[in-house]
């Protein structure tokens, strides 16, 4: 149900401070299989876009402690950074924990708060970490302020914070993926987003997990302006960009059908086609990067298909490989600096709860 992510709320702004109850939240990271790029407004406002994705068991985590004053203290446990400001003055957006600041500002805290945040992925990983962090902060602050939002509203708030408030270039898939959770076909239309959960047989999901490898390229992608470059190509009418985006959108539906019918080797081959079309859409996403060299090496050692997660330039590679050849792939890529991360699929999205344990 739309409000299942939230506990029963108190509308008394001082209740949490007096009771000692903490608010905790977590939102999952995601991997996408096809359609990335068609979730950008310049595309879906003219052509419908679609993304096939799933959340995984890596999270953005938030703990909210109520204060008796109007101070806000945000502490990042993974970055070792902290900021402090007064609610009456508002935050300064200076590149330090701005997503958390903007989420608090959007929802509106009824009193001072301490906020501990932790993201289980490096910056620029391509796993949707920024949106997951924003979702977790939104959920925690909304819970303590008594706000009630359905999942679509939370995802749109998340999008508005990143794209409008902070002017971060990007699409719309991450905000919906982390908020809803699970395996979803996300359809982006001019006037709305449609989230369709997929009822995939558990044995198929288990088998898919067994065939997938997640490899960090060892390079957090710099700000290469890849999203802006893609938009520029689209607006200029570059034919390869248009064809690549159209095919990626079509593949989101085709790969959904492959999963629902258990055609996993076909699914793996389509991952490679998605990689080719992503490069066609924007050739700069991988050219000359360690990620491209790692993928070429992986293909030589038996990987059937794979894709670069996120906008490109680095981050994680998702690889589909026969189980009997995975050891060779791991050894080859680790020798080049690749780092493998174990993961499993996560069926839940944003979760918010109260805790009596500090």
UniProtKB/TrEMBL annotation:
InterPro entries found in the cross-reference section: GHMP_Kinase-Related, GHMP_kinase_C_dom, GHMP_kinase_C_sf, GHMP_kinase_N_dom, HddA/FKP, Heptose_7-P_kinase, Ribosomal_Su5_D2-typ_SF
Protein name as catalogued: GHMP kinase, N-terminal domain protein
Keyword Kinase: yes
Stretches that traverse the bilayer: none
Domain (GHMP kinase N-terminal): residue spans on this chain: 100-182
Keywords carried by this UniProt record: ATP-binding, Kinase, Nucleotide-binding, Transferase
Organism superkingdom: Bacteria
GHMP kinase C-terminal domain mapped to chain residues: 255-336
GO biological process: GDP-L-fucose salvage
Family under the similarity heading: Belongs to the GHMP kinase family.
SUPFAM superfamilies: GHMP Kinase, C-terminal domain, Ribosomal protein S5 domain 2-like
MF-aspect GO terms: ATP binding; fucokinase activity
Pfam families assigned: GHMP_kinases_C, GHMP_kinases_N
């Amino acid at each position: 149900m739309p409000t299942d992510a939230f506990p029963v709320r108190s509308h008394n702004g001082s209740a949490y401070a007096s009771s000692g109850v903490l608010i905790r939240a977590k939102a999952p990271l995601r991997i996408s299989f096809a359609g990335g790029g068609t979730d950008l407004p310049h595309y879906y406002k003219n052509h419908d876009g679609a993304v096939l994705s799933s959340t995984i068991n890596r999270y953005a985590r938030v703990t909210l402690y109520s204060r008796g004053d109007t101070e806000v203290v945000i502490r990042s446990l993974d970055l070792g950074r902290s900021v402090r400001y007064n609610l009456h003055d508002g935050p300064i957006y200076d590149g330090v924990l701005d997503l958390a600041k903007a989420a608090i500002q959007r929802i509106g805290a009824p009193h001072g708060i301490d906020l501990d945040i932790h993201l289980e992925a490096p910056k620029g990983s391509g796993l949707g970490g920024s949106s997951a962090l924003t979702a977790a902060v939104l959920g925690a602050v909304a819970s303590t302020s008594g706000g009630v939002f359905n999942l679509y509203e939370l995802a749109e708030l998340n999008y508005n914070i990143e794209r409008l408030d902070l002017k971060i270039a990007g699409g719309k898939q991450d905000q919906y993926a982390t908020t809803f959770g699970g395996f979803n076909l996300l359809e982006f239309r001019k006037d709305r987003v449609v989230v369709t959960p997929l009822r995939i047989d558990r044995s198929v999901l288990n088998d898919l997990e067994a065939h997938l490898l997640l490899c960090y390229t060892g390079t957090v992608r710099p700000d290469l302006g890849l999203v802006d470059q893609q938009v520029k190509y689209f607006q200029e009418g570059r034919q390869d960009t248009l064809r690549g985006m159209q095919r990626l959108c079509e593949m989101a539906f085709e790969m959904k059908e492959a999963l629902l019918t258990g055609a996993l080797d076909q699914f793996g081959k389509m991952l490679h086609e998605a990689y080719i079309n992503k490069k066609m859409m924007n050739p700069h996403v991988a050219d000359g990067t360690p990620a491209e060299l790692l993928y070429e090496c992986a293909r030589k050692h038996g990987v059937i298909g794979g894709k670069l997660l996120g906008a490109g330039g680095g981050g994680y590679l998702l690889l589909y490989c026969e189980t009997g050849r995975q050891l060779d792939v791991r050894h080859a890529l680790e020798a080049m600096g690749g780092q493998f991360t174990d993961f499993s699929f996560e069926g839940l999205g944003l979760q918010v709860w109260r805790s009596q344990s500090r």
